[in-house]
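Re: folding output
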Amino acid sequence: MTGEDPLPPLLEAVLSVGTDLELRTTLQHIVDAAAELTGARYAALGTADPGQDGLLEMRTPGGAMPETAAVTVPIRVQDEEFGTLHLAGKKSFTAEDEQLLHVLAAQAGIAIGNARLYEAARQRERWIEGAAAVTTALLSDEPAADALTTVAERARILADAAAGVILQPTEAGGMEIVTASTYTDPGDIVGTTIAPGSPVLKQLLGGEPVFIDDSATDPRMTTHVRHRFGPSMMLPLQAEGRLIGTLALPRRRGDRPYTSVERLLAVQFASQAALALVLADAQHGRELLAVFEDRDRIARDLHDLVVQRLFATGMMLESTQRRSGAQDVQEALGKAVDELQSTIQEVRTTIFALQQPPADAPTTFRGRVLRETAGAAAVLGFAPSVRFTGAVESRVPEQVAGQLLTTLRRALAEASRRSGVSRIEVAMDATAVLPDGRDGVRLTVYDDAGAGTTATWQAPL
C-alpha cells in the first residue's frame, strides 16, 4: 500500500468513530460509519438507558426508520449493554455486512467508553469550579438573600436547568420557594409552597435527594408550577446536621433526563454549597460581634473619658459662677454650663445608640422600645423595667412611635445623669385618655433618684 492508496473502508470507519471525545459526536460518527460501510439508507442507534448519558437516539438524515429493520447489532461498553445499532433501507444485507458491523460495534464500545470518561471529567471539573466560585462569593460581603440567589443561579447554569430554585422550611412544616433564578422572569415561582406531609417533603426533610423524571406528571409533585417543568432534581442543603433548605433544578418539559453522573455531581455541589452558607453565616456573625465589641469600646471611652471630663468642666464653671460678682460674667458662665449639659446629654444619647443591636433586629414597636431600654442597661449597669398596656403594636402609628422613641431615649439619658439611680420604670400605655377626651398613648419614665423623678409624654392616636 502506497502513501496515496485509500484506507480500506472498515479501517477508515473504525478510525472515524474514535476521532472525537464528545459523546454525541462519537455516536453520530458510529451511525454514519455503519450506514456507509453497509450501503444502508437508514441507520439509528438507540440507547438502552437514556438516564445514563442523557441521549435517546442518534440517526442518519433521510427520514424515519422503516418499521422493520433488516439488521440489528448490539453495542456493549465493557460488560454493560449501551444500546442497539439498527440499519435498514438496503435490498439485502450480507453476512459480510453483519461481520463488518460487529467489528464496528466492538470499536464503538471502546470509543463510547473513552467519550464517557472524557465527558465525566469535564463535568466534574465544571461542577468543582462552580462550587469553588460559590464558596468564594458567599464568603465575601453578601447579604443572606443574595447568597441564596448566588447558589441558585450557579447551580442552574452548571446543570443546564430551566430554573434554579431555593426552598426553605416554613413554620407550618412545609417548604416555600424563597428565591429563583430562571432564563426569563420567574413570575409566580417565588412564594410557591409545598404543603406539609408531601412524600417529596418527607424525603427532603430527612436529608434525601429526590429525582423526578417528569415534574408535570409525577404524582409526588403538587405545586401549581409543576406543569412547566420536566426532569428535576431536588437536593437538600444540609451541613453539620442543619437543614438550610432545598436546591431544586428543574429542566423544561421534553428536555433530556439527568444522567447518573450529573445527579452525583449535583448532590456534591449542594453539600458544598450548604457548608459554604453555614460558613458565611458564621463569618457574618463574627463580623457583627466585632462591630458590637468595637461599638461597646467606643461607648465606654465616651462614657469614661469624654462625659467625665465634660462633667468636671461643668462643675468648675458652676463653682466659678458662684464666686463671680459681675452679672455679665455670670450669664456667660451660665450659658457655658447649659451648653456643657446639653453636650453631655447628646453624648449619652450617642452612647445609647452605639449599644443598640443592628437596625435589622427588632422591627416591631415593642421590640424597638425594648431595644432602647437594653441599650440603656449597658450604661446604667441594670435593666430598666418595662410595662406595656393595650395593643401597642396596632394602635401606635409609625410617626407617633418615632417621636415616642426619641422621647424615651432622652428620658433614659437624663436619668442616667443623676447620681443614685438604682431603678428605672418605663410604662407604655396605648389605652390612655388625654385631657381633651381623645384616645392617646402615654409614656412614663420613673427613676428613684432622690425623692423620685417622673418624665411623662403623651400624644393623640
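--- second protein (sequence, then structure) ---
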Amino acid sequence: MDENFKIIEEKTLELTFQVEDESHGVFNALRHILMQNPDVEYAVYNIDHPLTGKPEMTIKTKRGKRPRIALKQAAEELQKESSDFKKLIDEAL
C-alpha cells in the first residue's frame, strides 16, 4: 500500500482514510462519484487546514456492502473520467 494512503479506522460498513498530498478537487470528485453509488449511504471528507492539512474521508455503505469495494470502484471511475477529460482537451488544443 502507498505510504501516502493511511486507513484511520475500518468497520464492516465504514471506512475512514487519509491521503497526503491531495486536494479538495480530488476528494470532491471522489465524493461525488461515491454518492452516485446506490450501495453508499454517505461519503464525506474534511481537510483541517487548506494548505497543510491531510484530507480525511469517511465512506459508509449500506448493509452487506463493503466500503473498500465502493472506494476502489470510485477510484477507477475517477481515473477513467480524468483520462476522458484529458483526451478531450488534447484533441481540442
